[in-house]
């Protein structure tokens, strides 16, 4: 099988030095919107240098938990810590130099170019005493090059395709130069080729030393790319660990109400979910609504 030229293009860029470990953890964390808890009593460490993927049914608290790690949401119980210190005790710019969040469906300012969007990733590095410098130019050039957008730097973000636009947001996060990157459903609205293109880039950044945590829906993609797989159900973590240990047919059935078999991805050897057909789920001669199928 020939190599994907897009992956080769990104892999030719020289990597930055590996970031130092930071340690991002949740302890007995409860999160809510109003009076209703969405996440309850969760303990989770994001392994330094790991690629953690969080999966679970809609509404189980995946994105809510990720937002708490980015201190977008404050826990109503428990603590989120960075290097052993409550994330809300860190100053804003200090925290933003260590942890970057790409939320779901971000909206770019009207008319902004790719370069202008990527420049915004440098804001945490600026103070009254430190304004724009050659370091900022180098960080932006690296981010544009690394995401294959150097030739589109002066293009309005609104003129990009969906895949290019998502890469532009990733480039902004890269320009922020944080050791931790949090991605909330980064493949949403992307076609299948761009989904894998983006996830390959995340895997490359992880191999270069960045700690990455992402919320994904596709279990096969999660198993292929995660070093640490977290499964949530009804606001709690029900399993965590290597995909081989976590992704079982029994667990997929329990969490997602999907009868299935687990086989092996022929390319990577990682777990792959094979859903049962409707006939297998219903049993021979049984209709999905519980009736009996007509027999010849």
From TrEMBL:
InterPro entries: AAA+_ATPase, ABC_transporter-like_ATP-bd, ABC_transporter-like_CS, P-loop_NTPase, Siderophore_ABC-ATPase
One GO CC annotation: plasma membrane
Domain ABC transporter intervals: 24-259
Annotated spans, Disordered: 268-296
Gene3D superfamilies for this protein: P-loop containing nucleotide triphosphate hydrolases
Nuclease is among the record's keywords: no
Gene Ontology biological-process annotations: iron ion transport
Alphabetized GO MF terms: ATP binding; ATP hydrolysis activity
Subcellular location per the Swiss-Prot or TrEMBL entry: Cell membrane
Keyword field contains Transport: yes
Domain of life: Bacteria
Lipid bilayer topology: Peripheral membrane protein
Protein keywords: ATP-binding, Cell membrane, Ion transport, Iron, Iron transport, Membrane, Nucleotide-binding, Transport
Protein name (database record): Iron-dicitrate transporter ATP-binding subunit
UniProt source species: Embleya scabrispora
């Amino acid at each position: 099988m020939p190599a994907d030229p897009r992956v080769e293009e990104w892999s030719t860029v020289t990597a930055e030095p590996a970031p130092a470990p930071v340690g991002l953890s949740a302890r007995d964390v409860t999160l809510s919107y109003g009076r209703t808890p969405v996440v309850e009593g969760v303990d989770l460490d994001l392994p330094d240098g790991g690629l953690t993927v969080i999966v679970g049914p809609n509404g189980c608290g995946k994105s809510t938990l990720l937002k708490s790690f980015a201190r977008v949401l404050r826990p109503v119980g428990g603590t989120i810590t960075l290097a052993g210190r409550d994330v809300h005790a860190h100053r804003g710019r200090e925290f933003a130099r260590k942890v970057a969040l790409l939320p779901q469906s971000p909206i770019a300012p009207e008319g902004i170019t790719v370069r202008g969007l990527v420049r915004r990733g440098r804001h945490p590095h600026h103070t009254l005493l430190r304004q724009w410098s050659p370091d900022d130019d180098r960080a932006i050039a690296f981010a544009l090059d690394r995401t294959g957008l150097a030739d589109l730097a002066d293009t309005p973000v609104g003129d990009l395709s969906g895949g290019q636009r998502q890469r532009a947001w990733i480039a902004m996060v890269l320009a922020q130069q944080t050791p931790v990157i949090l991605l909330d459903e980064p493949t949403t609205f992307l076609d299948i080729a761009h989904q894998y293109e983006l996830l390959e880039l995340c895997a490359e950044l992880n191999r270069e030393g960045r700690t990455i945590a992402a919320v994904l829906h596709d279990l096969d993609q999660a198993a292929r790319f995660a070093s640490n797989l977290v499964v949530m159900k009804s606001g709690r973590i029900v399993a965590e660990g290597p995909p081989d240990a976590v992704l079982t047919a029994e667990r997929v059935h329990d969490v997602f109400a999907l009868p299935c078999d687990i086989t092996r991805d022929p390319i990577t050897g990682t777990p792959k979910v094979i859903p049962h057909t409707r006939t297998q789920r219903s049993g021979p001669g049984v209709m999905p609504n519980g009736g009996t199928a007509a027999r010849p």
